[in-house]
Design goal:
Radius of gyration of chain A: 39 Å
InterPro entries (chain A): Bact_2-comp_sensor_kinase, HATPase_C_sf, Sig_transdc_His_kin_internal
CATH class of the largest domain in chain A: Alpha Beta
Order of helices and strands of chain B: EHEHEHEHEHHEEEEEHEEEEEH
Distance between the termini of chain A: 39 Å
Helix content of chain B: 25-40%
Number of strands of chain A: 7
CATH topology of the largest domain in chain B: Rossmann fold
CATH class of the largest domain in chain B: Alpha Beta
Keywords (chain B): Phosphoprotein
Number of helices of chain A: 11
CATH architecture of the largest domain in chain A: 2-Layer Sandwich
CATH architecture of the largest domain in chain B: 3-Layer(aba) Sandwich
Pfam family, one (chain B): LytTR
Oligomer: heterodimer
Largest sheet of chain A: 5 strands, mixed
Protein name (chain B): Response regulator
Helix content of chain A: 55-70%
Structural class of chain A: alpha+beta
Number of domains of chain A: 2
Structural class of chain B: alpha/beta
Order of helices and strands of chain A: HHHHHHHEHEEHEEHHEE
GO molecular function, one term (chain B): phosphorelay response regulator activity
């Protein structure tokens, strides 16, 4: 619900100020019209108090019953009714308070049209201000809701993208452990630890968390060690990094899917030895990561490179930086290169 | 003696099968293969009775390999996770082992096969699964075998397909290849946005068409980029019009 117009202290002061101001003005005006001070004071206080009550009433009502678009005639009718009540109540009260002053009561009666018009203008004006105020508040709230919803869905999407751990990887790793248990129990145990550490690392990372390159590479090493147990006979990895890059930051779990993609691409697109090289360097205000894997340009569609698993990373980069140009791929003489630029903020 | 071949790209995965097979002295592992090419060669050389076949493998997957064999042996599939394939296995009652699998599950699969090894049904079913999966899953390539040479043709390289007796001739800029399949097989799985069956005997890659000339009443001739002319039937023209948005 919108906060009431009259709950704001500033507006309360303005409201009271207007009441005092208009009262003084009316006293002056009535005195100018040859009324004695006492009568002018009573007339002014009665009129303005009633007017203030009518204004507060309509403003308060508009807080709960906002006219639908184009139904402002109802508001106008309400203003007319309130104005009528305002003048007749005024007439009754002054008649009750000053029954002997017939000349003044006659003057009051004659001034009814003026009082009615003035009252209608005042009440109408307050009504108009209230409508604008409450409409604006509604809009602001709707905008906030929309922004909140967008933020939530973005977070959910990021979470999902980050969680896209290949079930293949998990089941095949477990199968490798199952194979090792019989003949090389020590190695099986090591692999259980590596897999646990890797999974724990994946789960622990907070959403939108930024980690240093050194941390990410450490996490990646666990993944590579597991893959080497599975494909050690074919898989070699080379990791290099420029000086001072270790402290640069990147979104958590961004590098791993790129390397996973490169390994899959390399292992399934060729039959020989697969060398995956990962290089990190600093350029201007960017951390640049380059991942290379062998591929067969004759059989693999270059498009497949992006369809393989890079689209998730691309989307994540867009959600984080609103840019489409941070992930680039290229294929040259049997080597497929993926490079990603991470702005340092 | 029962001859078997293990085809899996992970040595440790083959280790498990070998270890479990020690309980079956009548079954002998004659070769282990790390990819579909090796598997194909070994199967042709040794004519095994049974193979243990992984699905996700380098170059060509297990199903593609199976499709290239003229007389496929009995198959027990081993796979880690493949919803798609599992549905096909269930549908064709073909045995499969989900990695990691235990000894009990493994023994059950082998015993079941031993009991019914002389029925042809199990072999045919495995082949049917391979065909069903390669036909329905999203593929962007065709694997063909010419003699002992295996060629992987990206779908984008195909110019047109031509019926040739029991085969389909796949025409590419690099040459043409025969595949032991029917026209309707290809008509079904090739993307309907890129390929149109313009005639009973022809499926064309729409990007290859440069011109359509009227031929006889309600039939046309499609002229391709390479200058080849293909007949377009009345129904074929209707389909072509739809795809090209004429």
């Amino acid at each position: 619900m919108a906060t009431s117009l009259l709950h704001s202290t500033r507006l309360k002061l303005i409201f009271l100020g207007s009441w005092v101001g208009w009262s003084l003005l009316q006293i002056g005006l009535l005195w100018w019209l040859d009324l004695d001070w006492n009568t002018a004071l009573i007339d002014s206080l009665v009129s303005n108090t009633l007017l203030m009550a009518a204004s507060a009433l309509i403003s308060n009502n508009l807080q709960f019953y906002q006219p639908e678009k184009g139904r402002y005639a109802y508001v106008a009718i309400w203003c007319l009714i309130l104005s009528a009540i305002y003048v007749f109540a005024g007439q009754w009260i002054v008649g009750y308070l000053e029954p002997q002053k017939t000349a003044y009561l006659d003057f009051f009666y004659k001034s009814l049209p003026v009082r009615f018009s003035f009252g209608f203008l005042m009440i109408g004006w307050v009504a108009l201000l209230s409508i604008i105020w409450y409409t604006r508040q509604d809009q602001r709230e709707a905008e906030k809701r929309k922004a909140d919803a967008e933020r939530l869905s973005r977070e959910a999407e990021l979470y999902k993208l980050r969680q896209q751990l290949q079930p293949h990887f998990l089941f095949n790793s477990l199968n490798s452990i199952s194979a090792l248990v019989g003949r090389k129990p020590e190695e099986a145990r090591t692999m259980v630890h590596q897999l646990s550490d890797f999974l724990r690392g994946t789960l622990r990372k907070e959403e939108n968390e930024w980690v240093t390159l050194a941390e990410e590479l450490q996490h990646l090493q666990l993944y590579l060690d597991i893959e080497k147990v599975r494909f050690g006979h074919r898989l070699t990895t080379e990791i290099s990094q420029g000086e001072g890059c270790g402290d640069l930051k990147l979104p958590a779990m961004l590098l791993q899917p790129l390397v996973e993609n490169a390994i899959k691409f390399g292992l399934y697109d060729t039959t020989g030895l697969v060398i995956i090289s990962i290089n990190a360097c600093c350029e201007d205000n960017y951390l640049v990561l380059t991942i290379q894997n062998p591929y067969d340009p004759n059989t693999s569609n270059p498009r497949r490179g992006t369809g393989f698993g890079l689209s998730g990373v691309k989307r994540r980069l867009y959600l984080l930086f609103a840019r489409h140009d941070l992930l680039q791929t290229s294929g040259e003489t049997n080597i497929f290169t993926t490079s990603v630029k991470i702005p340092q903020v | 003696m029962i001859k078997t071949i293990l085809i899996d790209d992970e040595p440790l995965a083959r280790e498990v099968v070998k270890e479990y097979l020690e309980a079956f002295p009548q079954v002998q592992v004659i070769e282990e293969c790390g990819d579909g090419f090796e598997g194909l060669k070994a199967i042709q050389q040794h004519q095994p009775d049974l193979i243990f076949l992984d699905i996700q493998m380098p170059k060509i997957n297990g199903f593609e390999m199976l499709e290239l064999i003229d007389q496929p042996p009995a198959v027990i599939f081993t796979t880690a996770f493949d919803e798609y394939a599992i549905r096909a296995f269930e549908a064709h009652a073909v045995d499969y082992l989900l990695k990691p699998f235990g000894r009990d599950r493994f023994n059950k699969a082998v015993n079941k096969w031993l009991e019914q090894q002389h029925s042809e049904r199990s072999k045919q079913n495995a082949y049917a699964v391979a065909e069903a999966v390669t036909q329905t899953s999203e593929h962007d390539r065709v694997v063909v075998k010419t003699g002992s040479k295996i060629t992987i043709i990206p779908v984008t390289d195909i110019e047109f397909l031509e019926a040739d007796d029991d085969y389909v001739k796949i025409h590419t800029s690099a040459g043409s290849y025969l595949k032991n399949k029917t026209m309707s097989y290809f008509d079904q799985w090739l993307s309907a946005k890129q390929f149109v069956r313009i005639h009973r005997s022809f499926i064309v890659h729409v990007d290859q068409i440069t011109r359509l000339d009227p031929y006889e009443k309600e039939t046309y001739t499609a002229i391709l980029k390479n200058g080849k002319k293909l007949p377009v039937s009345k129904t074929g023209y209707g389909k072509l019009k739809q795809v090209l948005g004429l």
